[in-house]
Amino acid sequence: MATMTLLGAINHTLEQQMEKDETVVVYGEDAGFEGGVFRVTAGLQKKFGKDRVFDTPIAEAAILGSGVGMAINGLRPVAELQFSGFMFPGYNQIATHIARMRNRSRGKYSLPMVIRMPYGGGVRALEHHSESLETLFAHIPGLKLVIPSTPYDAKGLLTAAIKDNDPVVYFEPKKIYRAFKQEVPEEEYEVEIGKARVVKEGSDVTVVSWGAMMRETLKAVESLKDEDISIEVIDLRTIAPMDSETVVESVKKTGRFLVAHEAVKTLGIGAELISRVNEGAFFHLEAQPVRVTSPDITVPLPKGEHHFMIDAKRIAHEIKKLANFE
Amino acid sequence: MATMTLLGAINHTLEQQMEKDETVVVYGEDAGFEGGVFRVTAGLQKKFGKDRVFDTPIAEAAILGSGVGMAINGLRPVAELQFSGFMFPGYNQIATHIARMRNRSRGKYSLPMVIRMPYGGGVRALEHHSESLETLFAHIPGLKLVIPSTPYDAKGLLTAAIKDNDPVVYFEPKKIYRAFKQEVPEEEYEVEIGKARVVKEGSDVTVVSWGAMMRETLKAVESLKDEDISIEVIDLRTIAPMDSETVVESVKKTGRFLVAHEAVKTLGIGAELISRVNEGAFFHLEAQPVRVTSPDITVPLPKGEHHFMIDAKRIAHEIKKLANFE
Amino acid sequence: MFFEKYDPLKKEMFSVLDKDGKVINKEEEPDIDNDTLLHMYKTMVLARVADIKALQYQRQGRMLTFAPVQGQEAAQIGPMAASDKKDWLVPAFREAAAMLYKGATLKQNYLYWFGNERGSHFDEGVNILPVNVPIGSQINHAAGIAYASKILKKGEVVFTYIGDGGTSHGEFHEGVNFGGVYDLPMITIIQNNQYAISTPRAQATKADTLAQKAIAYGIPGILVDGNDVLAMYRVSQEALKRARAGEGPTLIEAFTYRLGPHTTSDDPSIYRKDEEVEEWKQKDPVDRFRKYLTNKKLWNKDKEEALQKELKKVVADTFKEVEKTGQYELDEVYDYNYETMPKDLKKQKEDYLNYLKESEGE
Amino acid sequence: MFFEKYDPLKKEMFSVLDKDGKVINKEEEPDIDNDTLLHMYKTMVLARVADIKALQYQRQGRMLTFAPVQGQEAAQIGPMAASDKKDWLVPAFREAAAMLYKGATLKQNYLYWFGNERGSHFDEGVNILPVNVPIGSQINHAAGIAYASKILKKGEVVFTYIGDGGTSHGEFHEGVNFGGVYDLPMITIIQNNQYAISTPRAQATKADTLAQKAIAYGIPGILVDGNDVLAMYRVSQEALKRARAGEGPTLIEAFTYRLGPHTTSDDPSIYRKDEEVEEWKQKDPVDRFRKYLTNKKLWNKDKEEALQKELKKVVADTFKEVEKTGQYELDEVYDYNYETMPKDLKKQKEDYLNYLKESEGE
Ligand SMILES: Cc1ncc(C[n+]2csc(CCOP(=O)(O)OP(=O)(O)O)c2C)c(N)n1
Ligand SMILES: Cc1ncc(C[n+]2csc(CCOP(=O)(O)OP(=O)(O)O)c2C)c(N)n1
Ligand SMILES: [Mg+2]
Ligand SMILES: [Mg+2]
Fold it and tell me: Domain holding D33: CATH number?
């Protein structure tokens, strides 16, 4: 066991998987020689050479499209996009090919590939560096999307993603890249893709979150510890496939549901969760489900971001309101 | 008054607006000389010349990105994408620029532009020619998205879109391009963007749909006319901004809600509607809201499409179940 | 050495045969054994016959719209004949002839345009990617396959196709450039059939030739008579040599013409003059090659008649077989989206089956 | 005539000054009046001083990360000085110097990198687009502006900038090609500063020069000493002439070097040798131009000292002003997403205001 940051756990997992499987390759803009702008891939090129760890031209369609070809021809590509806001020029490959090659070829070609990208706000960044774009992946059939909120899950989910024979999009909550450390086993292990984690059991309110907002949620819950509210906290952790079962079962117990996410409100993951909670636990609901999200506006530049990002205080406020609703 | 098909109404409206406003330009792949692969822009180049109606290279980012520049510099571009499935290579321009230029420049640059594209399935088409991608536009703050289901609305919404000083995405339900004719006034008129249309009043169930599925919904309702169910039918018509008010008011009255759409289920527009109905009319709901949608899979090629597309029969079946739910 | 002789800026066109099938460039006439020559010819004719029949079937409403290959057979058969079995073909959407030569069956080909994904499940060891609809995106797939071939030392070379119109797309740029950066074993063939649907080649780009776009990527580019199967073979041979030697990619512009419509939904008479089509019929790549073979005494009228008869039957029989498959089953639609179907999708499938049961007779 | 003389394949570099500011290409020395020469120089120095101070402020945590311009001032000021007020500037993200010359105020510039969108609301009649982050996409905007200029007969020419790394992007390809197809009044300047963050130019493309990419679009391309402000001016003059005459776009590769980090988050010592940086310091574009002006007796030490002092104060005062603006108000965030705020967004704003009220003191 070693203690690692979330970023450290990703680096360690990439190294471990590259060691175990010679077909794993890691690449992206600046991902090779310098180890990425966040240094997530630091040290890998030195260890595994330029063929397996390499810098690409600035060309997201080529990064993702070449991944399709590599995966078809015997590699397990792990592509890095520098920021999730720069996935757009490569989105064509994601939606029209990566999500579809298995189905299109009726199983002849599968795509064991991972697409990593840092996402999310609250880091005083420039435009297009702060978005939370879960919906754009979770809405596309054929894709999987996972988001760790802890170093332990970061390793387990990444290991599972690399071993998956289908494409997995792996969001990295950059706000908490180095926020805290956790014990992470040295040996290989997987966290099942498609399984949410009940972080804390409770009986009054179900609160679901993930990624960097999981931290805010936990802070919110902590701040409410003197209130008489028993909160069940779920880390959704894999957005697609969505583990509605765990969420629905929880709501059946609590009767109250709140989701907290960074993405904008309209058609954010919260919308889908509420629909599934309706479909699975409608008559258990004692109050209307609550979405704590960013508003439907463009992420502001840093001097306005405080009006946009949700935080522990806001989440706590809404949990309290929901719990006290009669 | 003349009777027109939906396609004819679009062609007529483009011509009318180009006549009234010299800054309107129409362009896209094959949109000039031959008038588009569906002939929606037929006759316009001949009438207005090659500068204002033109063929572009096959380059969706250029089509949309140049539209940004044209709109900034005094034109009102109406860009055509050949099929909605080919919007992906230009999605970067849509999400990172078109939706944002006004906010980014704090109002210095607005983008009066329209992005037209045929969408939807059921026409025995090749891959990527059948998708319903509403979510990918409605989730992005700063965009508007409208979808006519009748020739009358086709004209009114397109007129409003062209006159709007903000960008409007205009989906054309190609399955009903020529399905039927309707009287359409010759003179200019607008259908307000952001306003749903109550097609038929009722008191037992609220059914919401739009585009080609509106037709299926109406058929479904017609097929139930001998049942003792009073159905309120709403054509959502403008997906973003979403007229939740009209929908919520209706559900307050009926207590039952069903949405029927072509897009896949997860994070389809239905999810957002259910969430808004929850937020606005939770205690009026007498049964769990119902989504009648395609499943979360890739649109099959035509020989499998019957397993994918919803139809009047399916909608009728689900309306009946919902109405009879105790 | 070979490519250095050709300056794409000069607009010279590489060719071996004239339009009557006579060799006009003896020193570059490729040395191909007779069996291969005949196999090349027969595949060209098969593609042609299949195409003509498919147009008929489509007009009768029995097939989907499709992208006819007529007129472009040489640009597709030459490169495939020069390649090895292990080499890859990454097509756009108009490469029926190339696919047939490379090992796709006619049944698969027809099944695809009949509207069934099974048509893209090629046999074991047949290195073809499915028909690719989003223009340009296939070039990046080809680059990735080539990258894997290179670092896994597989010795495979990747052929990929694109149209003249497609060269204006960003993905073309990114893919060909990517190939250049890593010296990948990748050969990009532009079939310049002079139109992108209704849009003439001149509207795609101001460049004088498309071959000259190679200069932007620091790789060789060559303009070839795309209706000359031997020229296409010869140039591919040299490009393959470069690729196998680790010298990197090559860009080939095959100057050709589509004799038919863009797809069956298209009416080319709107944008093309009859005379132009007539002129290109005189340069028909199949006729030219047949004359070459006839001159070589490898072919004659009787053989032609027999072949035509045989292939027409093969094609008709195949279509019958395909047509029998009809609409396909529910499992096909659901079961290939993931290796293991996620729980929520399983639930959707069950719900749908329930609906089918409940609604029977409604 | 001018561009015909330069063959981008030959890798010749157009220049007017040597690195000591001596004119080495007399016949191409542009004829610029003294006021303009001095204004060019002063703007270069302003950009330099603002840059150095911003780096300091950023290290103190008082500004966001930003993209320093140091070393690239000539490549930006030359073209802007050659252009008219009505011409457009469509920048990437490292064009602070160009923006300042074209009419953006230092305050706007600082405000933007302070994290406030107001910095992109330029004054009436100042034809600049906001800083553009998604690489390559600005080229298409430029093409569209040029299209409007052309068909509305405005006579405006559009300058757009991109980096060496950016030329590998699909949007670069589509945009420059689009300009070519319609003969648009559009000048694309590649600032080849030899790195894209840590990735060296050679990894961006195998092409020998970036200027030669023009050949792919059938337009002139020229390699210019990007640290020579007179060369940049002269070439822009000719490109403008072409554009105004309706002859279409030009591609200019400005060979230069960024003396600072990619952004303040970047540590260039990881990927660049000190000697390399030193070597390029010797070619500093500001120094070279100062020597030229000094030779011309337009400049001297005293003037330099006075200017430095003045500009340092201007910059410090401006930053103080900017810093005072602090975090901005709620309305700013909500009110500019649409001309008319949709109902549902109004509701969200109200809800948020309610929350703020309710939660006061929590
Ligand atoms: C990204 C994308 N945009 C648009 C289309 C629609 N489309 C299909 S074929 C075609 C024209 C292709 O022309 P060209 O590249 O010359 O190939 P050809 O059809 O002549 O073989 C277009 C625009 C598409 N398939 N993909
Ligand atoms: C589409 C996109 N992908 C990635 C990035 C992240 N990024 C910002 S600057 C940069 C390098 C740019 O290099 P170059 O084009 O040479 O310009 P320079 O920074 O040298 O001025 C990258 C990759 C981006 N801004 N946009
Ligand atoms: Mg073509
Ligand atoms: Mg650079």
Answer: 3.40.50.970
Q: Does B50 touch chain C (CB under 8 A)?
A: no
pLDDT in tens, D131-174: 999 999 999 999 999 999 999 999 999 999 999 999 999 999 99
What pLDDT, in 10s, does the model give residues C298-353? Answer: 999 999 999 999 999 999 999 999 999 999 999 999 999 999 999 999 999 999 99
- Our answer on whether the CB atom of C165 is closer than 6 Å to any ligand 1 atom is yes
Whether D333 and A34 lie within 8 Å, measured CB to CB: no
Q: Which residues of D3-15 are buried (b: 16+ CB within 10 A; e: fewer)?
A: beebbbbeeebbb
Residue B153's SS3 state is helix
Mean pLDDT within A216-242: 98
Residue A84, ligand 2, Cβ within 6 A: no
D158 and D58 share a domain? yes
- Are the beta carbons of D140 and B66 separated by less than 8 Å? yes
Across the interface, which of D88, D122, D149 has its CB nearest the CB of B108? Answer: D122
Confidence of residue A210 (pLDDT cuts 50, 70, 90): very high
Residues D58 and D86 in one domain: yes
Q: Note whether D107 and D137 are same-domain residues.
A: yes
- Given a cut of 80, is residue A264 above it in pLDDT? yes
- Domain hosting residue D177, numbered range: 3-328
Residue B68 is nearest to which of D118, D120, D141, comparing CB atoms?
A: D141
Which residue, judged by its Cα, is nearest atom 3 of ligand 2? Answer: A86
CA angle D219, D222, D225 (to 5 degrees): 160
Q: Write down the residue that tokens 């066991």 correspond to.
A: A1
Listing DSSP states for D52-92 in one string gives HHHHHHHHTTSS------TT-HHHHHHHHHHS-TTSEEE--
- Residue of C197, C256, C265, C280 best suited for mutating to test ligand 1, as the one with most atoms within 8 Å of CB: C197
Same domain, D168 and D86: yes
Residues C43 and C114 in one domain: yes
CB contact under 8 A, C336 and A52: no
- What pLDDT score does A122 carry? 93
Same-domain status, C238 and C335: no
Question: In this complex, do C154 and A74 lie within 8 Å of one another by their Cβ atoms?
Answer: yes
**Sheet of D250-255, strands arranged across:** D88-90, D158-163, D186-192, D250-255, D221-225
Q: Residue C53, Cβ neighbours under 10 Å: how many? A: 18
Flag whether residue D181 sits within 8 Å of chain C, measured between CB atoms: yes
- Cα gap C290→C294, rounded to integer Å: 6
Q: Map residue C239 onto helix, strand or coil.
A: helix
Chain A: touching chains (3 or more CB pairs < 8 Å): B, C, D
- Judged by a CB distance cut-off of 8 A, whether residue A102 touches chain C is yes
Quick check: D180 contacting C, CB < 8 Å?
A: yes
Taking CB atoms and an 8 Å limit, are D177 and C208 in contact across chains?
no
Could you read off the pLDDT of D50-87 as tens digits, one per residue? 999 999 999 999 999 999 999 999 999 999 999 999 99
DSSP D17: B
Task: State how far residue D311 is from chain C, nearest Cα, in angstroms.
Answer: 42
Angle at C205 between CA C200 and CA C211, to 5 degrees: 100
Shared-domain flag, residues D223 and D245: yes
Answer whether C166 contacts ligand 1 (Cβ < 6 A). yes
* pTM, full prediction: 0.98
Question: Does residue B241 have a cis peptide bond before it, meaning omega lies within 30 degrees of 0?
Answer: yes
Q: C272: which chain B residues are within 8 Å (Cβ-Cβ)?
A: none
CB of A86 sitting under 6 A from ligand 2: yes
**D289 and D210 in one domain?**
yes
Atom 19 of ligand 2: nearest residue by CA position: D196
Domains: count for chain D: 2
Binned at pLDDT 50, 70 and 90, residue D7 comes out as confident
Domains of chain B, start order: 2-184 (3.40.50.970), 197-323 (3.40.50.920)
